[in-house]
Design brief:
Layout lengths: L1 H5 L41 E8 L6 H20 L7 E8 L4 H14 L4 E3 L4 H14 L3 E2 L7 H6 L4 E2 L5 H13 L9 E7 L2 H16 L3 E8 L7 H9 L4 E4 L3 H12 L7 E4 L7 H6 L7 E2 L12 H12 L9 H19 L5 H10 L1 E4 L2 E5 L5 E2 L5 E5 L2 E6 L16
Parallel strand pairs: 1-2, 1-3, 3-4, 4-5, 6-7, 6-8, 8-9
Antiparallel strand pairs: 10-14, 11-12, 12-13, 14-15
Protein name: ABC transporter substrate-binding protein
Organism: Halobellus rubicundus
Keywords: Signal
Length: about 425
């Protein structure tokens, strides 16, 4: 369980700006002097389109590494079955980054030094993805990343080669409002409390939640801070209850979120709805909480219940390839990473050529239909018009509750939560 919980520390929320030390140095070594002597400037001359990636197969994020890798593997198989990229067979070269920025840099630089690399794909969480982005930007290689949600960091870093087919803070907060707006107006809550770990991305999320919900007619009646791995939420719970908050929003680390939920359940405070982005985003939440974590909302980038845009093919391929029971739902990270492979396929095949600059421009100028939804990118590589799929823990599984679909895994949002 310890490994599983640690592996969650940075899912969609362990993103953007946070590093190992919970600071804003998430670029993971931009200032280091390690060389890029293996960098090449053209596309592959071997007839193979080569993609490099690191994945946390070991270390604190390892519980998510398998899901990330499976989404990539299924995507590469689909691309090659469809004729490859510009007629070139795709080769995916993967290194274990051991869940550390240093190993991300070393792994990608090794791949680049020994291969004609055309594109890079991301690892898990902002602390690893920003280390990868630093390599991609220096090496001038198109880079796609998911599972990191920092919004402002794209503009602050001036990304030219990095794009994120995954909801960023703006999308997450808009998704929350969409979910709340599903509640009939006569029953809809109006008073919201926002908690935030004292880290840059979490503060960014809190600011955007406050702005989005205030503009939407909701009242933020309390806002409080806590440490990322806090073990005592009793004062925050008391203050939130005194403020009359009906809805509680937070981006805690998994251990902090579990502690907070346990202490809420043991208190007199009963919010009508809770969203714990990051802590509740993957299956380890249920492993740790069980029914005590029922009906908590999350927004992990892809949720079972989405339909169209290749979802049915992805689900069937997953079950056929990995011998999964017919009724078992896909892990959310499989869908999120598979979505990235669809962006790569659509962008490269729409490009006039496969040289890196042309592909980069094609990524930024395209619009995409993926298992996660429809979206494009802005000039800094952030998604535009991304409708964040919102999930809720219902009967021990993550189910889509917004937007509404006819998918078998879609459920109507439970409100008020039990």
């Amino acid at each position: 369980m310890t490994t599983g919980l640690a592996g969650l520390a940075g899912c969609s929320g362990g993103s953007g700006s946070e590093s190992d030390t919970e600071s804003d140095s998430g670029s993971g070594g931009d200032s280091e002097t390690d060389s890029d002597s293996g960098t090449v400037t053209g596309s592959s001359s071997s007839g193979t389109y080569t993609i490099g990636a690191t994945i946390p197969e070991t270390g604190v994020f390892s519980s998510l590494g398998q899901d990330l890798k499976r989404g990539y593997e299924m995507g590469v198989q689909r691309i090659n079955d469809n004729g490859g990229l510009h007629g070139q067979e795709v080769e995916l070269i993967v290194r274990d980054d051991e869940s550390t920025p240093k190993k991300v840099r070393e792994g990608l630089q090794s791949i680049i030094s020994n291969n004609d690399v055309d594109m890079l794909w991301g690892s898990f969480a902002g602390v690893l993805n920003l280390a990868a982005a630093a390599v991609a930007e220096r090496s001038e290689i198109p880079f796609l990343k998911i599972a990191s949600s920092g919004d402002k960091v794209h503009e602050q870093q001036g990304f030219e080669w990095t794009s994120t087919p995954f909801p960023v803070s703006t999308d997450h907060t808009r998704g929350t409002k969409n979910a709340l707006d599903l509640i009939p107006e006569s029953e809809r809550p109006s008073k919201v409390a926002i908690w935030a770990p004292n880290t840059n991305w979490s503060i960014e999320m809190a600011d955007m939640w406050e702005q989005t919900l205030t503009d939407g007619g909701y009242e933020v009646v309390f806002r409080g801070k806590h440490q990322l791995h806090s073990k005592d939420f009793t004062t925050l719970i008391s203050e939130t209850q005194s403020a009359g908050a009906e809805v509680l929003l937070d981006t805690p680390a998994p251990d902090g979120g579990i502690t907070a939920m346990q202490q809420i359940n043991n208190s007199d405070y009963s919010p009508k709805l809770i969203q714990f982005t990051r802590a509740a985003d993957t299956s380890s939440w249920w492993s740790a909480m069980g029914e005590a974590g029922e009906h908590v909302l999350m927004s992990p980038g892809w949720v079972p219940g989405l339909t169209g845009n290749g979802n049915e093919q992805m689900i069937q391929t997953y079950r056929d390839t990995y011998d999964i029971a017919s009724g078992e739902l896909l892990p959310v990270m499989v869908g999120a990473s598979y979505n990235l492979t669809q962006v790569a396929e659509q962008a490269v095949n729409a490009a006039e050529a496969t040289d890196r600059a042309t592909v980069r421009d094609a990524i930024r100028s395209g619009t995409y239909e993926t298992v996660s939804g429809s979206f494009g990118f802005d000039d800094y590589g952030r998604p535009t018009d991304f409708t964040t799929p919102m999930g809720q823990w219902i009967d021990g599984n993550q189910h889509l509750v917004s937007p509404e679909t006819d998918g078998e895994a879609f459920r109507e949002m439970v409100y008020p939560m039990s």
